[in-house]
Amino acid sequence: MPKTKTRFRYALEQKLGQAIGDFNLIQDGDRIAIGLSGGKDSVILLWLLARLQKKAPVDFHLTAITLDMGWGLDYSALDQFCRQLQIPLHIEYTNMGHLIFEERKEKNPCSLCARLRRGALNNLARQLHCNKIALAHHADDAVITLLMSMFYTGRLTTFRPSTYMSRQDLWVIRPLVYIREAVIEEAVTTLNLPIVKNTCPASGITKRQEVKEILADLEDKIPGVFSRLLGSLQNVEINQFWI
């Protein structure tokens, strides 16, 4: 394997392992459903967990779930990739896209889309006898979610690396929380992993994209600001807040 690919593999696996260890994300006997949209983040998550499965000291099962929104996408490359990794792929075809954009004509489609996708993914995971769902949120997502909560809701909150949903009796885990988006982008290109293009009409015009651009501007002006924002999620001094 060329040095560049080896470097990416080592860096990604190190960060993945650190997150799994820090937050106890995977245990022996787990049956994990990977939310596989076909985008760069979910594809690298699938690739990393498949590699980990082969050498981890614990035994766990993986299956991939793709929710088709009704855009007529071609998943043949994704299916072939899963076959190469020996990970079963379940594709669930839905009309969510039509419901959100044509029937409901949502002004804030991302909120409804997230709820529908989350519900469908939870139900499918249970049907496939999984006890955990692995989502591909990365470090940038964690910080952007924190900033969005502050900017738009006046709250200091973001998602957790591991969350238990008692109603579904499911854990949601996010093994990529220590990995930067730029590293994922470069790794996917270098490793030549298959990507399904995002054809969502709302792609690139969301509040999340606006905050992402604000964060990029902050990083240009304040060196090291991202690392400090991410670190602040684990260095909370409750007695310093107005509560």
Give short descriptive properties of this protein:
243 residues; alpha/beta; Rossmann fold; 9 helices; 51% helix; 12% strand
Can you describe what's shown?
- The mean pLDDT is 91.
- Strands 3-2-1-4-6-5 form a six-stranded mixed β-sheet, with helices on both faces.
- Helix content is 51%, strand content 12%.
- With 243 residues, it is of the alpha/beta class.
Distance between the termini: 54 Å
Named CATH architecture:
3-Layer(aba) Sandwich
Shape: globular
Mean pLDDT: 91
**CATH first level:** Alpha Beta
Strand order of the largest sheet: 3-2-1-4-6-5
Rg of Cα set: 18 Å
Number of strands: 6
Q: Tell me the major beta sheet.
A: 6 strands, mixed
Helices and strands: which structural class?
A: alpha/beta
Spell out the CATH superfamily. Answer: HUPs
At the fold tier of CATH, the topology name is Rossmann fold
Q: Quick summary of this structure?
A:
With 243 residues, this protein is α/β, with parallel strands linked by helices. The chain has nine helices and six strands, in the order H-E-H-E-H-E-H-H-E-H-E-E-H-H-H. A six-stranded mixed β-sheet has the order 3-2-1-4-6-5, sandwiched between helices.
